[in-house]
Each structure stands twice: as C-alpha cells, then as structure tokens.
Write a sequence for this structure.
C-alpha cells in the first residue's frame, strides 16, 4: 500500500544504548530523577500484538496483516523480564503493571506472574501486581491469573452499547464477552477491579452515563480517560478530546458527586465519590475516577517507568527514544551493572511531556515521532 507509515521501525532505530556508569550506583530504594521524582511504578509491555484494533491505539490501516510485529526472539523472555524487574524493585518500585498490546495474548503469562509475585520490595513486602486488558480473554483466564499471584485487573471498556463497542474495537468483538470477563475476574477475586473508558467526543460520549449507572454500586471503579495524543498513527485532534471537567459535569447532572482524597502520591486519577442525599460520600455506591492527561498535567508526581516488549526503558509515555536494557542483559551485564545503568538513566530523567504540551506546536507534540502505546503499554 502506497504511503503507509510504520512508525515502530523508526523507534527501534532510535534506541539509545544503556550505559553502565564508570562509578557504580548502588540501589538503596531512594532513587530520584532530575526533578526529584522517585521510581515506584513499572509498566511492562509483554507483547506488541493485539486482537483489537481500537482506532485511537492500533488503527487498522496501519496495524494490518503486513505490519512488522516484533519476532519472538526480540521479545524479552520471562526470565529476562523478571531479572530486570528485580533491579527496578531494588530501586524502590512496588507496583508492576503488565500491559501491551493485549497482555493475555502472551503465551503462558501465568508463569511470568508467578515469577514476579516472588519478588519483594525493599521493605520485604510483596509487590502490587496488576494487569491491564481488553477483557476479551479474561473469562477463560481469570482463575489461572489469580492462582498465579495476580492481585487485580483493569479492564478497558469504551461503552455498553454493543454497536458502539464493536465499532470502537473495530474487530466486531461483542461487549457481552467483556462483561463476562469482568464477572469472571470478580468471581476469581481479582479486585478491586477498575474499568477504563477512553472518551472520544462524538464517538462514545453518549455512553458516559450508561456506563456510570451500570458500574455504580458494584465495587468496580469506572475511570474516564481523556483521549490522548500518544503515538503517531491515531490522527489525534484536540476537538475529539472530552475534558474530564465536562465528563464530570455530565455525570453530576444525574448522579451527584463529592471529591475524594487521592489514594497515593503519583495517582493518575482524580477520585470522585457518589454522594448521598446529605452530600456525603455514599460508600456503597462507590466512586469513579477521571484521568485528565491532556487537560491537567500530572507530571510533577510521575513515578512511572515503562519497559517495552523488547526491553527498552521509556521514561515517559510520550518519549521518542528508549534506553536499550536488553543489550545489557544479553551482553552479560551483572546485576550490579544493570542496577547502576538503570539508576543513571532515571537520574537523568527530565520528561514532563503533558506539562509542556500546551507550549508545543498543536498536534505535533515534540516534533519527533513518538512511540506507539501498543508497544510500550498504557
Ligand atoms: N490491550 C490492553 C487494554 O486495552 O486494556 C492493554 C494495553 S492498552 C494500550 C492500555 C490502555 O491504554 C487502555 O486502557 C487503552 O484504552 C488506553 N489507550 C490506548 N490508546 C489511548 C489513547 N490514544 N488515549 C487514551 N488512552 C488510550
Ligand atoms: Fe489493543 Fe488495548 Fe490498543 Fe485497544 S487499546 S488496540 S485493546 S492494545
Ligand atoms: Fe509521566 Fe510523561 Fe505522562 Fe508526564 S507525560 S505524567 S512524565 S508519562
């Protein structure tokens, strides 16, 4: 096909070598970046493949049958992932999120979960291990994931209307299957479950209230995500973003809300509780979240690192370059060298794309080609 763009290739070429610093940097759990931000959260993409083609993430025209996905030998093995994750944990990470692509497509993912679940934080505690999924395979896999040590899941669901959902996933996948997956996760004890809804103005904004009504009082936390300008293929336009403030206004027109305190530093979602008749939080009705990555930057607290499917470390969702940790691992680096290299990379981190977005040229981001979300995960 003429004129087709394949941005991922550019990203691989753009990888920077990860360098072991001449002076070793030990892991003391207190690592901070150049803006004083600690390292607490590691997101690991376990595959760049997906069985959905959400237009905001993997548009069909680009991610077609000729798309050059990574060959299996390029993927980090489970042992490599666990070894790298262990070094991050030594630096203070206490939460690991598995993502993709669709992480449940990675064969034997339960084995990886079992390995990660054996790691301990610097305080000797078990890690918080979670996974973000489109839910399509969850009904089949929930029990095995729980048995392997997964604690909870986040399920992406952009609407309850079957027609809207089928057209947004663009592979005609029925919403009923995802709802079955959510039920299975709940039965398996993979909670608290979160449901993520990307809101695209003119596409699924009329699903906001039906989604809120459906999940209210279920113990499931529904989170509305602003459609983001990630990657280089989704044709993002600001006029398709529905700001969280507008989402909240819409919900409040029927279901009153009260603000809640953030549950943790670096928390990406603003929390809102459903209110009772006295304007207090009705705990049984539960809460919702809004993730305002476009209209309200939260870079100041950003403590997240991302490890790509092939072992590149990304310091920001909007980064244009990764740091190649796989070469170090496959080149025979010791644990001390790996820990030092990660420390040096994090210490040099100045990324804060969302904060700077408004000062950049419209719709172009940094001007350089950004990495795809399906490659480094959400
Ligand atoms: N396939 C899994 C899923 O959909 O949950 C995991 C990977 S997906 C890249 C992770 C999250 O990123 C999903 O919740 C998805 O809705 C979100 N996402 C993808 N592209 C986005 C965009 N352009 N703006 C906002 N969120 C996006
Ligand atoms: Fe696949 Fe998730 Fe991207 Fe949708 S958002 S295309 S399910 S990776
Ligand atoms: Fe973190 Fe980058 Fe997102 Fe800012 S834009 S919150 S630095 S991932």
């Amino acid at each position: 096909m003429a004129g087709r763009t394949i941005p991922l290739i550019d990203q691989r070429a753009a990888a920077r070598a990860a360098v072991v610093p001449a002076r070793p940097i030990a892991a003391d759990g207190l690592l901070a970046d150049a803006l004083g931000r600690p390292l607490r959260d590691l997101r690991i993409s376990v595959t760049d493949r997906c069985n959905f083609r959400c237009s905001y993430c993997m548009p069909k025209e680009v991610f077609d049958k000729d798309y050059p996905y990574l060959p299996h030998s390029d993927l980090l093995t489970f042992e490599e992932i666990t070894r790298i994750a262990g070094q991050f944990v030594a630096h203070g990470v206490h939460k690991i999120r598995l993502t993709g692509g669709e992480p449940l497509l990675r064969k034997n993912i339960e084995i990886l979960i079992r390995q990660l679940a054996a790691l301990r934080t610097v305080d000797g505690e078990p890690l918080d291990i979670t996974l973000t999924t489109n839910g399509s395979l969850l009904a089949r896999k929930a029990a095995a994931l729980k048995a392997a040590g997964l604690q909870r899941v986040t399920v992406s669901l952009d609407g309850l209307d079957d027609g809207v959902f089928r057209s947004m996933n663009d592979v005609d996948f029925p919403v009923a299957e995802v709802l079955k997956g959510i039920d299975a996760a709940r039965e398996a004890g993979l909670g608290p479950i979160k449901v993520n809804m990307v809101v695209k103005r003119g596409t699924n904004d009329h699903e906001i209230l039906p989604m809120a009504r459906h999940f209210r009082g279920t113990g499931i936390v529904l989170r509305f995500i602003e459609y983001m300008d990630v990657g280089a293929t989704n044709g993002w336009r600001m006029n398709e973003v529905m700001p969280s403030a507008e989402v909240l206004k819409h919900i409040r027109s029927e279901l009153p809300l009260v603000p809640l305190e953030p549950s943790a530093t670096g928390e990406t979602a603003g929390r809102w509780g459903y209110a009772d008749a006295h304007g207090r939080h009705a705990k049984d009705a539960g809460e919702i979240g809004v993730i305002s990555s476009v209209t309200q930057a939260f870079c100041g607290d950003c403590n997240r690192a991302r490890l790509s499917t092939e072992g590149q470390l990304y310091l920001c969702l909007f980064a244009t370059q990764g740091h190649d940790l796989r070469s170090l691992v496959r080149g025979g680096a010791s644990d001390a060298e790996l820990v030092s290299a990660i420390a040096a990379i994090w210490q040099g981190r100045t990324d804060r794309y969302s904060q700077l977005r408004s000062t950049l040229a419209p719709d172009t981001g940094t001007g350089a080609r950004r990495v795809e979300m399906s490659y480094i995960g959400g």
Observations:
- The pocket of iron/sulfur cluster (ligand 3) is lined by residues 298-299, 302, 304, 316-318, 351-354 (CB under 6 Å).
- The first strand starts at residue 16 and ends at 17.
- The radius of gyration is 20 Å.
- DSSP finds twelve helices and 13 strands in the chain.
